[in-house]
Design brief:
Blueprint lengths: L1 E6 L5 H10 L3 E4 L1 H9 L5 E2 H5 L14 H8 L5 H9 L7 E5 L15 H11 L5 E3 L5 H11 L4 H28 L2 H6 L10 E6 L11 E5 L5 H4 L1 E4 L5 H14 L7 E6 L2 E7 L3 H11 L1 H4 L2 E5 L5 H8 L3 E6 L4 H7 L6 E4 L8 E6 L2 E6 L11 E2 L7 H14 L7 E4 L4 E5 L5 H12 L7 E4 L6 H9 L4 E4 L6 H11 L2 E4 L8
Parallel strand pairs: 1-2, 1-4, 2-3, 4-5, 11-12, 12-13, 19-20, 20-21
Antiparallel strand pairs: 6-7, 8-13, 9-10, 9-11, 14-15, 16-21, 17-18, 17-19
């Protein structure tokens, strides 16, 4: 029996080589893998000696040889294949152990491997006769099976082959993605790639999906990681699909409204409270006050370390998840008194370049929505400009509105959301709901609308709620009517020229 070993990740490869040698296998290898095996005192034949051909073209040609690929690809049940092997003095290769350089770590043309993927794919194709191992976690499994049975079962070889094809697919996807990322001229004209090649691996099983009868899991891009992969869950039950989905929304929101101490409360992917304050505990109290009914059983995201004072406040309300960059020891102890609360410590999130959603037969893809705060690019549409305090609240409300399901209206005062109307089929209802939730607290505050007011009644609702300034995209055929209503009420109105729908 013969094994060919050529790996980038050398974890466990020496131990595997020792185990195969003890079972009587001949080992063929090259480069660093061969050196590591030989250094451990395990007999190994160098690929160049095995093929009789030198390594060429600066290591671009190492394993690309008929003696290698003929040995891997031969159908042992086909008489013509056996005759070809004999005529060309080619010995069968029974096991290929190979994993590829993580291309994303240092992408370049020279780091595009040809021989490695070809060898792995060849072994996977011929899994009826050849085992292929790309994951060091599988080394012990195959050694046990080879020791006990003397060979790998067809079922094992098939599972290993699937893993191998997934490995090469992820590798190719990383190369395509890199080539897309480096095509700056095309990106300037068209930021969306001509094709998408997604390679993801299942890394976390969830308690269930959106509903208990659904199965759920978290997948990660095979060539990268997100904040979830470094997050630490210190306490609480396993995450469900909705726990994870809502926590993601909360974590992105709390880092999108600036760098000041901020707390966001999320329920069903929508904020039901957001507030910024110098005191992080006070920020939470203000965020919770926006809609305490909806905050029950919600997700709380904090962009500062959780203090004992904040933990005391959190302990008074049933909360599914609290996510923060850190927890004071006494705060952690306080929160852990709650049996079921999930306590997650995490790094700030990255914001994706693309937004994707499933549809029948494929995906809807768009560039990610980013909110620009540029007063110079905005237009004061009314006779009265905003005051300095109103400007601050307008920017705050505008950032929050972009993260609320459309149609939406956000009422805010002193960088605290006091009323949020989310996901309504018409803007008037969104304004009415926001005003009801504000319950008189919007007086002297501001209103943000994620899209223009098609009629003045939406603006009238904000005026009736006591708002003194409004921010909206503008662009309605009735802008003049809406501006006139604002001037009549003596309020300021800012047009951003950019809407932020979120479906």
């Amino acid at each position: 029996m013969r094994a060919l070993l050529s790996v980038y990740d050398k974890t466990g490869v020496v131990e595997l080589a020792k185990g195969l040698h003890e079972l009587g296998w001949e080992l063929v290898s090259s480069g660093g893998t061969a050196a590591a095996i030989a250094a451990a005192g395990v007999p190994v034949v160098d690929v160049a000696d095995y093929t009789g051909s030198p390594i060429m073209l600066g290591h671009r040609v190492v394993t690309l040889h008929p003696r290698i690929h003929g040995g891997i690809l031969a159908d042992r049940d086909d008489p013509e294949h056996r005759a070809d092997l004999e005529a060309n003095d080619i010995e069968p290769i029974d096991l290929v152990v190979g994993n590829l350089y993580p291309f994303r770590a240092e992408p370049s043309v020279e780091n595009i491997d040809i021989g490695g993927p070809t060898m792995v794919r060849a072994a996977a194709k011929n899994h009826a006769h050849v085992g292929v191992v790309v994951d060091p976690d599988d080394y012990d499994i195959i050694l046990v099976e080879l020791t006990n049975a003397g060979h790998l079962s067809l079922g094992t070889r098939r599972q290993l082959a699937r893993k191998a094809f997934a490995h090469t697919a992820a590798y190719d996807a990383a190369i395509v993605s890199w080539m897309d990322d480096t095509d700056e001229i095309k990106d300037a004209e068209d930021p969306l790639p001509d094709s998408l090649h997604l390679a993801l691996e299942r890394v976390q099983d969830l308690r269930y999906g959106e509903n208990p009868h659904q199965v759920g899991a978290r997948y990660r891009y095979a060539d990268g990681a997100g904040w979830w992969d470094e997050a630490i869950q210190h306490h609480g039950k396993d995450m469900s699909y909705l726990n994870l989905f809502d926590t993601e929304a909360a974590w992105r929101l709390v880092f999108s409204v600036g760098t000041d101490p901020t707390v966001a409360v999320i329920k069903h992917a929508n904020p039901c409270g957001v507030a910024t304050h110098d005191d992080i505990a006070e920020a939470y109290r203000r965020a919770h006050a926006c809609d305490p009914v909806s905050a029950f059983g919600g997700i709380v995201a904090v962009n500062r370390e959780v203090t004992l004072e904040l933990a005391d406040a959190l302990s008074e309300v049933f909360t599914e998840v609290i996510v923060a960059p850190g927890f004071a020891p006494e705060a952690m102890a306080k929160l852990q008194e709650k049996k079921n609360i999930r306590i997650i410590e995490a790094n700030p999130p990255a914001f994706p370049l693309l937004d994707m959603r499933s549809i029948d037969g494929g995906l809807l893809v768009q560039s990610a929505d980013r909110v620009a705060l540029d007063r110079d690019a905005w237009t004061v549409a009314t006779e009265r400009p905003p005051t300095a305090a109103e400007w601050d609240d307008l920017e705050f409300a505008w950032q929050v509105a972009a993260r609320v399901s459309s149609n939406c209206i956000v009422l805010a005062k002193d960088r605290q959301a006091v009323g949020i109307g989310a996901g309504q089929q018409n803007r008037r209802d969104a304004g009415r709901i926001a005003a009801e939730k504000a319950d008189g607290r919007a007086g002297g505050g501001v209103c943000a609308s994620d899209a223009f007011f098609p009629f003045r009644d939406g603006l009238d609702a904000a005026i009736d709620a006591g708002c003194t300034a409004v921010i909206q995209p503008g662009g309605s055929v009735r802008d003049d009517e809406v501006i006139a209503a604002a001037n009549e009420a003596g309020i300021a109105m800012v047009f951003t020229g950019e809407r932020h729908f979120k479906h």
